[in-house]
Design goal:
It contains five helices and six strands. The chain is α/β, with parallel strands linked by helices and 206 residues long. The two termini are 21 Å apart.
Length: 206
Amino acid sequence: MSAGESRRVIVASTNHGKLAEIRSALDFDGWEFVTAVDLGLDSLDVEETGDTFLDNALLKALAYSEAFGLPALADDSGLEVDALDGAPGVRSSRYSGETATDAENNAKLLEELAAVAHDARTARFRSVIVLVEPDGTVTSASGHCEGRIGNERRGEGGFGYDPLFLPAATPGRTMAELALTEKNAISHRGAALRRLRKALELPDCG
């Protein structure tokens, strides 16, 4: 796969925040990132039964590539809180139930950490990105972002646990208080996407 090759890649997600981050981080000529909805098709409901972020990202990418006959990009990511022995981990989006909302997951996390001191609220976001080609070739990359869990939700940007997560790289501001370009520069998904670009020998964003 050469840097100048024009190709359409289907993204295995309906999460608009995640799509915006992927498109922003992988913005370069010759590649078009689309969703099933963009193609006028139904999205797949891929059951995330894996034990790791890599397992789940691979499940989604393989399913989408096979179903749509296109290169497929999938991400699986989540929050690991040290005081909770790494939870919610791969169940981050389903922390308070299979159909949980971001607000419900955030509320449960705050409840679980109510008695935990500030210095012990260390955590990290972790992301694994997988690109599967129609011929079965798999390229993957991972990234993480260290920080702490705050005591209250702050900020209107981002999604998921962003309003609670205080990145070590941006003291005093939650992930949800960062502009998208700032978030991509320090986030777990941004790091994974940059490593994916390098693995694919694609040009830097500049």
